[in-house]
Amino acid sequence: MSAINHEERVRHEGLREKIMTAEQAATFISHDMNVGMSGFTGAGYPKAIPAALAERMKAAQARGEEFKIGLLTGASTAAECDGVLAEANGIKMRTPYQSEAALRKQINAGETHYFDMHLSHVAQQSTFGFYGDMHVAVVEVAGILPDGRLIPSTSIGTNNAWLNNADKIILEVNSRQSLLLEGMHDIFDDIGVPPYRKPIPITTPGERVGSPYLTCDLDKVVAVVLTDSPDRNSKFADPDECSNKIASYIIDFFHEEVKKGRMPANLLPIQSGVGNVANAVLAGLQASPFENLTGYTEVLQDGMLDLIMSGKMTQASATAMSLSPDALDRFNANIEELRKRIILRPQEITNHPEVSRRLGVLAINAMIECDLYGNVNSTHVMGTNMMNGLGGSGDFARNAFTSMFVSPSVAKGGAISCITPMVSHVDHTEHDVMVIVTEQGLADLRGLSPRQRAQKIIDNCAHPDYRPMLQDYYDRAAQTAGMQTPHILSEALSWHQRYVETGDMRVKKGLALAV
Amino acid sequence: MSAINHEERVRHEGLREKIMTAEQAATFISHDMNVGMSGFTGAGYPKAIPAALAERMKAAQARGEEFKIGLLTGASTAAECDGVLAEANGIKMRTPYQSEAALRKQINAGETHYFDMHLSHVAQQSTFGFYGDMHVAVVEVAGILPDGRLIPSTSIGTNNAWLNNADKIILEVNSRQSLLLEGMHDIFDDIGVPPYRKPIPITTPGERVGSPYLTCDLDKVVAVVLTDSPDRNSKFADPDECSNKIASYIIDFFHEEVKKGRMPANLLPIQSGVGNVANAVLAGLQASPFENLTGYTEVLQDGMLDLIMSGKMTQASATAMSLSPDALDRFNANIEELRKRIILRPQEITNHPEVSRRLGVLAINAMIECDLYGNVNSTHVMGTNMMNGLGGSGDFARNAFTSMFVSPSVAKGGAISCITPMVSHVDHTEHDVMVIVTEQGLADLRGLSPRQRAQKIIDNCAHPDYRPMLQDYYDRAAQTAGMQTPHILSEALSWHQRYVETGDMRVKKGLALAV
């Protein structure tokens, strides 16, 4: 337990009396409980309780007792949260998103039930009890005001709902998070109960409609734990040639759309998934002539911070910050100024279909693979193993003014084609995918029938190694009876099957193309 | 050309001068044009122009000239519209929905490019030119006021957008439609241009926020054609035992949800797809103790009309009426009273994610098949042939408070299982499907991992003939490495393949289960 700063950070008298160690606080959590933790893309997750809880789990298991919880968060956390709990084999059910190696292994081994869902739905469906009761909330905050209002941390996620819904609340007060975050958040979640709901009043990405503070019933707070640990800091790879090509096609596309009068000269609010390719697109916008950009997205990462700091982007709305160590330093050094341009909201609002459809976001999200007809797989490796989860991609793609999915055309040194005859899992249907981009080029699928889409994807997006194989599949499929979406059912998933069996989707020389 | 009623129906002097025959009016349409026609589920489609246009097409083709158009509507039309144009092989591109046999044949033969899309997107994407220019609008109306405002017909669909976007307008004034429809419509479409849009102000299904009339630039009207023909009138089958069982499970589910406090005693606004099963559910509600129901749906069909007429349902919002001949008589006999409870809106508004998410609709839609993991196919027969299209099912399922998909557990006398290992096409992903219902039972999938879903769907929804086959597939798949979504890739689509080859998904006696 760190003693530093707790006078400054925990300014409510009654809550100060509840300060205890993580080990003590973890005793409020027992087997079979549903626990709602803070955390979104490695930002603002609890740093101490999960490890203490994992020790309790291991001790119980050593005594021959079961100790597993249902774990709900905003999105992904880190090794100190999902990781330690998974290693203790303590997660029975997990939702809505994860990206941690140990947990992924548990999920794919069938040890953990993972329920993969749209991030915009988490608060509503949990509040209405679709996932059972919420027993304990564990929420990281930057500080507690004298009246008990909470200064949120580097992510909001679903914290507001966990605080409202849980029977008991444990607060982690992390003195490593800047107190200058105060005022950056906008907690609006009073959207009512159906069918008596009012419109969400946001009409620009930067509009503030709520309070900068989280609140809760202070009587429910059973423990306050002091921590002093940084968020997971992932360094992004510098944009490589592949990412830069993808970025350049997207920026060319934006230029064309502006020229056609479909969007204003400063574009529409940008939503960008997390990752190296997304970061390269944002870096490409930095070098572009576009000015006065706005962002309405889920996660603020390095590239978007740079756009804001350079003045290229005037407003950005997100629910979390996922910054590299360098970017975090820049952020902290300029936080007073950045507070005027960055807003952190609950994920129910950042990802809400009402707002993204209204604003008309430009959605750019990564994919694992897409097929000839524009169906996209964002989650599964070879149809059966979970990678991370859907995240907010569906919230945005469905409601975007333009929805784009991006990926290098091949993976694993060319052994996997990211364009396949049929995807092995569908997260975004042909109806929700407007544009596909790889380093080979861009395929604008809007208004095209499946057959027209297939030819465009083969020509513009497939890797040259796989283009003849795709063309061959498509040509033979188009000989069959059903010409809306030509497929050879016995062969549609054979590329994945071949990869599982041989480690390569390509047919070895001397073998026939067909299975 | 019918002379009846045209004094009463066309009350604008200038437009009266533009009255001409359908043959004359059809000359405004030529090869390669995009034509936006009215029509939604066989209601309010043009009755005369399509046939006249088809004759022009056939004459041109007889001269060796090409004559094909891009045809956009609200949704499905009828034999006199899609049918005659398809039979003339005159449709190059079709969107967003169809259900006509001749057109379906053209699509599946590869003669027509069919672009299947969410109905809520049609107006926006067409207005912004995603599908090219709109050359001619052909819109059926019930009458024209002295100042040129238009009394809409039995559907609104995307008529408001066609009238705004088209270079030229042809109006069909159909004296068979009741003039008492005047006042039943609510044309609100001033939702602005992104990113400068305001909230859609609808907060209850029955709220009127626009005008009862369509308007257009009268200078763009090149022709007025008088018609006197009924809409396509489909008789619904009387609910059978299978439909009644499905309805009873859904009503039990609603009771449970009310008991759990998840929705009020008068339920949430009901959205129901079109068809016999949906109609049976509505009939089931008629017999249930629920009172003061509301509807926020796409199409008002017999069952919903009965709920309104009996007083069980107080408000219903839709974009079209699709009534059997008997129900139409009841409707017309009571239209003055019904006008207080029924509102017809543009499909962009009935299907808008903003409104359905806000109100929290209970979405009940039919499916062709679903798989072990809750992915739903609404459109494709054996993966390659188009049935009708997606319609509004995705608009509603994604944003519903509870999304349900219903089907008998088998089709074709048992030769097809509507629960399959993997669906042959995905229209609604596992993330958008909360409840599956067949005559065998109901599977509530909320909060369940894919493996949990599989067992529940097998146990509750599969037909006994197929239950052991599904269990066998699942058990063997669960031996593979990827336990998030167990599949045997080489076998996942084998049931469909077997049906194509043998006409039966069941394995014949004496053959092994595996392919």
UniProtKB/TrEMBL annotation, chains A, B:
Instruction: Please provide the record's keywords in A-Z order.
Output: Transferase
EC numbers on record: 2.8.3.18
Query: Per UniProt, what is one Pfam family of this protein?
Result: AcetylCoA_hydro
Single GO MF annotation: acetyl-CoA hydrolase activity
Q: Which residues form the Acetyl-CoA hydrolase/transferase C-terminal domain?
A: 330-473
Output the GO biological process annotations, alphabetical, semicolon-separated.
acetate metabolic process; acetyl-CoA metabolic process
Where is the catalytic site? E298
| Broadest EC class assigned to this enzyme | transferase
- Where on this chain does CoA bind? G273, V274, G275, N276, V277, I368, N388, G392, K412
InterPro entries the record matches: AcetylCoA_hyd_C, AcetylCoA_hyd_C_sf, ActCoA_hydro, ActCoA_hydro_N, NagB/RpiA_transferase-like, Succinate_CoA_transferase
Query: What sequence ranges are listed for the domain Acetyl-CoA hydrolase/transferase N-terminal?
Result: 14-225
Q: Which family does it belong to?
A: Belongs to the acetyl-CoA hydrolase/transferase family.
Matching NCBIfam families: YgfH_subfam
Instruction: Provide the protein name.
Output: Succinyl-CoA:acetate CoA-transferase
Species in which this protein is naturally found: Psychrobacter luti
Lineage start: Bacteria, Pseudomonadati, Pseudomonadota, Gammaproteobacteria, Moraxellales
